[in-house]
Amino acid sequence: MKLIAGHWYRFNDRGEIHTGQYMGRERGFECCVCFKGENCHCFNVWYSSDGWETWGYGNSHLPEILEDLGAAEEIIIDRAA
């Protein structure tokens, strides 16, 4: 599946289901699994309407994408984060 920047995805991150907005590959972000690299695929995971974390994943550690939720007008809060 080709990930589209700006789309929201439900994904399985090592057994935990999360929802985040895919931001594309971002310079300066290391993989949140192995802490290597500097140009990772990044998801913004919102835990409140004014707070989020950016999670970067290297090619070897991309989470399993469960669903493409499309480009939402509003922030989608990740209840699991």
Keywords:
81 residues, five-stranded antiparallel sheet
How would you characterize the overall build of this protein?
With 81 residues, the chain is mainly β. Helix content is 0%, strand content 52%. It contains no helices and five strands. The chain has strands at 8-13, 16-27, 39-48, 51-57, 64-70. Strands 4-3-2-1-5 form a five-stranded antiparallel sheet, with no helix packed on it. Strand 3 (39-48) and strand 4 form a beta hairpin.
Assembly classification? single chain
For the record, give the distance between the C-alpha atoms at the N and C termini, rounded to a whole number: 24 Å
Question: Spans with pLDDT under 50 lasting ≥5 residues?
Answer: none
- The helix count comes to 0
Tell me the helix content: under 10%
Strand content: over 45%
Structural class, from secondary structure content?
mainly beta
Bulk shape: globular
Structure summary:
This protein has 81 residues and is mostly beta strands. The chain contains no helices and five strands.
Strand and helix layout:
Layout: E1 8-13, E2 16-27, E3 39-48, E4 51-57, E5 64-70
Antiparallel strand pairs: 1-2, 1-5, 2-3, 3-4
